[in-house]
Specification:
single chain, globular
Amino acid sequence: MATPAVAGLSFQMVVSIVNTAMVGRLENTQVELAAMGLGFLGTWAITSLFSSLSTGTHVLTARRHGEGNQVAAGEVLNNSLLICAVLGVIFGGLGYLFSYEIIDFFSKNDAVTREGAAYMKYQFLGLPFFLLIVSYRGFFYGIGHTKIFLFSAIIINLFNIVFNYLFIFGKLGFPRMALAGAGVGSAVSMTLGWLFFLGVTFMPEYRKPYKYFSHFSVSRDVIAQIVKISVPVSAQNILILLGFLSFVAITGIIGTVDQAASQVVISALFISLMPCFGFGIAGQTLVGQSIGRGEIRLAYAYGYETAKLTTIFTTLLGLVFVFAPDAVLAVITNNREVIEVARPILRIGGVAQVFYGAGIIFANALQAGGATVYVMMVEILTHWIIFLPLTYLFGITFHGGVKGAWLALPIYILAYTGMNLLKFRSTSWLRIRI
């Protein structure tokens, strides 16, 4: 079950690296990379406020599927789509209109602000389609058909690369839009991804048993359950991404090159993080379905075994980051000054991320049981009380520079994983009714 999810998220990882590599070869590389970092994290912070509806849809669908109630699972999809369509239109429009103000709040450089805002506003045009994809994705995760996500990821990400290339560099008669072209490519690919999922829902193997077309109804109870599960995850996601946005802003205080190098390293770390989220999807589905069937011991086993597999993966990637950092960085940028600054901080990130995979798995398992508030509180404590203050302390106050700022990362990750593990080992999260 994990393999298609890992593969699909790995395609997203590849797109992130390829897009950063394209931007890293534009003129004025340092400004473009810094702007992309702020624009990407800023857009992601806002979309993550609602993309957690995938988690609510996923958890509720997995539980109903485990109980053997397929029609109720289809009802979850219908109501999730309704929520996402409304939110996508409203906030996509607001994000498009106020992109400059969002970037300007975090940026210390006028050129970075202009480029980042141009990139961000086009990404927001794709927000309604992205959120509809979020609903479909959560449904197919919940029933365990992660292969559908893999197919969608291939379509979305291949077209993303193609259109980014055309619009960034102005090839084949398309306008040359530089960094803004990456935003256009993202919006177009999201539209195509939505069309793919819409087509899949008409297939008899899904349409007939789940009856989402023939039994469409707006259910306040289902909407309330989706929102109840999703809101803490939304808060958690927005805090994580605003936290990393603040982290990148702190590195900008140190210097523009340091900020650009941090963005390059964050892109490189997606090599390990995206597959970890894929393992988390499988673990969350299997834990949720097991709880729905009343198989508590099996739910525990799925959580622990998925954490073991993920840690093996992050360890192997960590070795690459530590012993061959230049090979990774060369894929993303050819700017020697940025590479020199990024090399030691990639090694720090490579060691730290070894322990992050297990933390993600335990968090996903707890969410499958309904303990979304606990996972949110862990993120608040470890990210905003530990990580960001230590980042500023080590990097600015103690004059440690960008390497000092990045030394806060392993402390944050160890605290995050440890607290999730302690909760997972208890039994309280298994008694939550959803």
